[in-house]
Design brief:
The structure holds 2 protein chains of 2 kinds. Chain A is of the alpha/beta class. Chain A is built from 5 helices and 5 strands, in the order βαβααβαβαβ. The chains are: A alpha/beta, B mainly alpha. At the A-B interface, helix 2 and helix 3 of A face helix 1, helix 6, helix 7, helix 13 and helix 15 of B.
């Protein structure tokens, strides 16, 4: 079974731990990270919005290079934490589109909730929800921390 | 005919600045345009001279500030600020946003929005990435505060420098009147970003925070003394441009950069562009542009008039970018008191947050040129812009009106 585990900065530890605990020994795991290219553009080419100014790029590696380095470091840390053989894949672009593209040919996508720690729709951020809604394979949605209790469900007053 | 020619030259200068063609640099288009207007008599020699005389001190001030900010970069101030932000976050994304707010608001107010956009935003991106925090809220915060935190001081934004020169306010009174609008703008940015990125900002982990940084004490002291110099220079009858020049000079003597580096830091071509654009706008203003703007901008110091000035200014800044918007609107408002000039600044400084490229005109151009470029997909940034710009325009203008009553 081919499994893609999508990790993100805020939730990768819990996501990797859950994947390690829940996947069978036959799973061929690919750890995936996507760097958002739009953000690199804001950070690197913000100068373009200063009309008439053509500042030289500041010294040091540009945001794109930093993002690549950090993505690889994160993926290696995740592979170490997973404790089993795994491919790693670093992509960049529009996050949700890249995740879906990486799922082509996979049997299962593992991803983590990235919103509020309550049992509610807000526990899934907009990009994660897009992936969830459009995934071309089976999906395993995990909590990056111990799942919250039933008491976190917001009920209308007459049902409490 | 004169009207049409002046407007065509103005449009060509702005298009060149937005499009950034290699074969037609914006400063050359604007300078040649100004010469053309002079040679065909659309602009008189005395008119051009008076426009240059009005802009000269501001452009000198700008050059000194650019050199000062570059000296701070050379002293390692922005790298040190990155370490300070990482340390202050203690691994929490929410606290990191607090640090980004403090640093970005301070950098913008003291060293201008240019320093925040060009020098600080990449550092914020790298800091968040190295902390393994989602960089999105922090980069957006930095990018937004470059505009909305540029309300405070005359040195925070080129538009403020232009208005400061025209308003006749002292440095201290300018800051005192803009303090409340600035704080209101910061509070609204904070609230909207916290709510919009509640999920991203919730998590705390033991991340790689790094060591206590070596702060560039000398550069910090120079910036602090320059700021104090601005405050005391007005009562002493010294123009603040000399204080900025002294600060830049002290840093330059200490660091001894090569003369070419120093010259490049002052961005001479940008200074030429500002001067030439000022002359072109002056020509267009004399031939109908002023009266057109005049009919759009209401007068008076009441709250409705100030809100209308801020609104119109924000719209014009989004259509043309904030520098030409200021050059066009400022002469019309110059006679009607500091209140409307400062309301205009609220509009032209905060308005461009609607888009990350500074104006709808620029965004449209980039859309046309990079039709299939994913990187210009900025829907989320624009939605965040709408959520902050409209409330800040209303609330900060209200705060300005209040400040005008009591300060």
């Amino acid at each position: 079974m081919r499994v893609v585990v999508w990790i993100a900065e805020d939730t990768w530890e819990g996501c990797v731990d859950s994947a390690g605990a829940l996947l069978g020994d036959d799973a061929e795991v690919t750890l995936l990270h996507v760097s958002p290219s739009d953000l690199e553009a804001v950070a690197a080419r913000g100068g373009a919005r200063l009309l008439g100014r053509h500042p030289p790029p500041p010294p040091g590696p540009p945001p794109r290079v930093i993002a690549e380095e950090e993505a690889h470091a994160l993926l290696e840390a995740a592979r170490g934490r997973l404790g089993r053989p795994a491919e790693i894949s670093a992509r960049r672009g529009k996050i949700e589109r890249e995740v879906l593209a990486a799922c082509g040919g996979a049997d299962l996508l593992v991803l983590a909730r990235d919103g509020e720690p309550r049992l509610e729709p807000g526990s899934i951020g907009p990009r994660t929800r897009f992936v969830l809604d459009h995934a071309p394979c089976q999906v395993l949605l995990v909590w990056p921390e111990p799942p919250p209790g039933l008491d976190t469900i917001k009920l209308p007053p007459h049902l409490r | 005919m004169s009207e049409v020619l002046a407007l065509v030259v103005l449009a060509a200068s702005l298009l060149a600045a937005i499009a950034r063609w290699r074969w037609a640099p914006d400063w050359a288009v604007a300078a040649l345009g100004a010469l053309l207007l002079l040679s065909v008599g659309v602009l008189s020699g005395s008119g051009a001279r008076s426009a240059l005389r009005a802009l000269g001190p501001t452009v000198g001030f700008l050059a000194a500030l650019l050199v000062l900010a570059d000296g701070c970069r050379r002293a390692g101030m922005f790298d040190a600020l990155g370490s300070v932000m990482a340390l202050g976050s203690r691994g929490s994304s929410g606290r990191l946003l607090g640090m980004v707010f403090l640093v970005a608001a301070g950098t913008t107010a003291v060293l201008s929005l240019d320093a925040t956009i060009v020098l600080l935003t990449p550092i914020v991106f790298a800091t968040a990435a190295r902390l393994r925090a989602n960089p999105r809220p922090h980069v957006y915060a930095c990018s937004h505060l470059a505009n909305s935190a540029s309300l405070l001081l005359p040195v925070s934004n080129l538009t403020n420098l232009l208005a400061f020169q025209a308003s006749g306010l002292s440095f201290t009174r300018f800051g005192a009147l803009m303090l409340l609008p600035w704080l209101v703008a910061l509070a609204i940015e904070w609230l909207v970003l916290r709510v919009s990125f509640a999920g991203e900002l919730r998590r705390t982990r033991g991340a790689r925070i790094g060591d206590r940084p070596e702060l560039p004490r000398f550069a910090l002291a120079v910036v602090g003394l320059t700021l104090a110099g601005f405050v005391v220079s007005s009562p002493l009858g010294i123009a603040p441009v000399w204080v900025a020049a002294a600060g830049a000079l002290v840093l330059a003597i200490r660091q001894r950069p090569r003369p070419l580096e120093l010259l490049r830091a002052a961005e001479p071509m940008f200074l030429v562009f500002v001067l030439a654009l000022g002359v072109v706008v002056h020509g267009a203003s004399q031939h109908g542009l002023s009266s057109a703007v005049d009919s759009l901008v209401p007068r008076g110091s009441g709250l409705p008039a100030l809100l209308a000035v801020a609104g119109v200014s924000a719209v014009v800044a989004n259509l043309l970018n904030n520098l030409p918007a200021t050059l066009i609107i400022l002469p019309v408002l110059a006679g009607s008191g500091p209140g409307s000039v400062l309301a205009m600044l609220v509009g032209v400084n905060v308005g461009p947050n609607l888009t990350y490229v500074g104006s709808l005109a620029t965004l449209l151009w980039r859309r046309i040129v990079h039709a299939h470029d994913q990187e210009t997909d900025m829907g989320e940034f624009t939605r965040l812009g709408i959520r902050t710009v409209v409330p800040i325009l209303l609330a900060s203008t209200g705060a300005l009106w209040l400040a005008l009553q009591v300060v």
